[in-house]
Design goal:
BirA Bifunctional Protein, domain 2; binds histidyl-adenosine monophosphate; elongated; 8-stranded mixed sheet; 21% strand; 5-stranded mixed sheet; Rossmann fold
Length: 416
């Protein structure tokens, strides 16, 4: 028996219904705010991610699916969407005419340890809003993320917010935490000790228990923000308050990717046992120039669709469209049943033609396929130009069947 690759799952039935429901809601919200879809390749040259996400991040140093293609070029299955979208904006010269507002959805790949809500292949919906640097744009972007989560019926979440400031703020802050962590170096995990030399900010992202304890007493970034960065951040906060978007400042939120400056945020569930981030994003000042584009800033976020699907388990109701089964009693009635089925399809009525097995088996199949009305066509009915309509899945015990003229079927179903 073949199984799917570890950490990669098949989506079908209720799961694919959930996925479609989420995506159609998110796309509608993105369109409402003026975003257009972009589809970038799943594979990019490895350098695209090294340059943008940063060599010292877990994503780049441990989690990428990287291999040499037949032309000996190093390529990588995208671990996130932003790098490819920005690469495309520059390659396609979209940055000649700013702002650019794009949304995307698709598969991402990270070689991580699979666990609840963490997969090796997972799906993100994201937006990138490039070339319009202002606290308003930051507030709008966070508002879109909140609107998306709310649109699928999830209300118990909060926005965790921080500012990573400009280059000057981060330089000063880095000096301060290097000094602090050096004092505690021997108690830090091996990984964090290595990061102290290469990328000290990443220590704040550590999942090691002892590291977390040391981090809790570390200097905070907000105290090192330049005047300009502080004014910018305060403005974003006050706009979020005006928008009535629930947020909480988290001084240690640094995000797992190196391209951020200024605003950084995550969406966290506030009820139930699952508390990992549902989404995250932030502003990036240098990403376009990394790819040789304009000196323009952008902001965006990505939401992990698989994690939302997990939380929706309790309340998601499958597609409530009416579905009609056209059921010939025997093979003799197949031609007329098939032509009725075709009529229903032409009229846009969701329907199934069920013609295999005896009548009991056909009704069982209709039930399994989720049909709630069956049109049963037997010899006697057809002779009198009638069909029997059977209402399935109904709690009513009377009026479960009805005889109707074949010529009236479409009108009858339309009125239902
Ligand atoms: P990220 O925080 O790395 O940000 O990922 C965004 C979301 O993707 C996470 O909050 C989580 O819900 C989901 N996610 C990440 N890894 C996994 C996994 N292994 N399994 C399931 N879900 C996962 C980014 O990717 C940035 N590109 C967001 C962004 C856009 N920043 C600016 N623009």
């Amino acid at each position: 028996m073949f199984r799917s690759v570890r950490g990669m799952k098949d989506l079908y039935g209720r799961e694919s219904d959930k996925f479609d429901f989420i995506l159609s809601n998110f796309r509608r919200i993105g369109e409402r705010y003026g975003f257009g879809m972009i589809y970038t390749p799943l594979l990019e040259y490895t350098e695209v991610f090294h340059r943008s996400i940063g060599d010292e991040t877990d994503v780049v140093s441990k989690e990428m699916y990287t291999f040499l293609d037949k032309g000996e070029e190093s390529v990588t299955l995208r671990p996130e969407g932003t790098a490819g979208v920005i690469r495309s904006i520059v390659c396609e010269h979209m940055d000649q005419c700013l702002p650019v507002k794009l949304m995307y959805c698709g598969e991402m790949f990270r070689y991580d340890r699979p666990q609840k809500g963490r997969f090796r292949q997972f799906r993100q919906f994201g937006i990138e809003y490039v070339g319009d640097k202002s606290p308003y744009t930051d507030a709008i972007t966070i508002a879109i993320a909140a609107d998306c989560v709310r649109s699928i019926g999830l209300f118990d979440f909060k926005i965790s917010l921080n500012s990573l400031g400009d280059d000057e703020s981060r330089e000063n802050y880095t000096k301060a935490i290097v000094k602090y962590f050096s004092r505690h170096e021997e108690r830090l995990s091996e990984e964090s000790r290595a990061r102290l030399k290469k990328n000290p900010l990443r220590i704040l992202d550590s999942k090691n228990k002892q590291d977390i304890e040391i981090c809790s007493m570390a200097p905070i970034l907000l105290d090192y923000l330049s005047k300009e960065s502080r004014v910018y951040f305060n403005r974003v906060c006050s706009l979020l308050e005006d928008y009535s978007i629930n947020y909480e400042v988290n001084n240690f939120l640094v995000r797992g990717l190196d391209y951020y400056s200024h605003t950084a945020f995550e969406i966290l569930p506030t009820s139930g046992s699952y508390r990992e981030a549902l989404g995250g994003g932030g502003r990036y000042d240098k990403l376009l120039s990394v790819f040789g584009g304009q000196d323009a800033s952008g902001i965006g976020f990505a939401i992990g669709i698989d994690r939302l699907m997990l939380l929706m388990d309790d309340f998601f109701v499958q597609n409530e469209r009416r579905k009609v089964a056209v059921v010939p009693v025997s093979e003799d009635e197949n031609p007329i049943a098939f032509s009725i089925f075709r009529d229903l399809q032409h009229c846009g009525i969701t329907s199934e033609f069920i013609h295999l097995g005896n009548l009991a088996k056909k009704m069982k199949i209709a039930d399994r396929l989720g049909c709630d009305i069956a049109i049963i066509l037997g010899e006697n009915e057809i002779q009198s130009q009638n069909a029997t309509i059977k209402f399935m899945n109904t709690r009513e015990t009377t009026n479960k069947t009805k005889i109707i003229r074949i010529s009236d079927i479409v009108n009858f179903l339309r009125s239902k």
